[in-house]
Amino acid sequence: xxxxxxxxxxxxxxxxxxxxxxxxxxxxxxxxxxxxxxxxxxxxxxxxxxxxxxxxxxxxxxxxxxxxxxxxxxxxxxxxxxxxxxxxxxxxxxxxxxxxxxxxxxxxxxxxxxxxxxxxxxxxxxxxxxxxxxxxxxxxxxxxxxxxxxxxxxxxxxxxxxxxxxxxxxxxxxxxxxxxxxxxxxxxxxxxxxxxxxxxxxxxxxxxxxxxxxxxxxxxxxxxxxxxxxxxxxxxxxxxxxxxxxxxxxxxx
Length: 253
Known about the structure:
The protein has 253 residues and is mainly β. It folds into 2 domains: 121 residues, Lipocalin (Beta Barrel), CATH 2.40.128; 86 residues, no CATH class. 0% of the residues lie in helices and 49% in strands. Strands 4-3-2-1-8-7-6-5 form an 8-stranded antiparallel β-sheet, with no helix packed on it. An 8-stranded antiparallel β-sheet has the order 11-10-9-16-15-14-13-12, with no helix packed on it. The termini are far apart. The model has no long low-confidence stretch (mean pLDDT 94).
């Protein structure tokens, strides 16, 4: 039809066990919501995941998008340390996708991989219980290298010893945020002592956490999850409540 399109092709490098990819290792990933995202129109929580880069430079893992959608992370880094990402989403409805480019490069205290991804959920795509009209959003992505802690070492290294050494926060929705003082132990258990019922599980092997919140007084119940960004010493993720997505964080007081 006369339309011109720009094509970006990348040559796949050859790595071996004796000469591996410089990016080999495990990573935790955050797919950050834009600053000031309106949770009524698009997810205001951060997607997250865990992935591995093999000695061949191939990437594999699982991403949890902040509307509850799961998708695999699969691809490879080019000679220029770039990874062109494309994942079709929302089967049964055309047009859903997660696409963009990520680059492996060290930014001390911030990230080891960064870039941006365009995320499209078409009108009517399932689940229709959350953002049924769909959305079209660009998300910044950061990934940090992750190494499982040794026995007796806290994965969240900058938290102090003792009780109530972390803040668990739920923000981003129209209702006031929820702030809870939690204890992250040296055994990597995350504890909350009430009065609300909050259960949190941290997988020290992957750097991911998940949990549930229940307040019988306000009849508020939801599930949440996220990832520990080791380079930033910050845990981020999302929760779903009343058809919207909000931001979950764990950080030092």
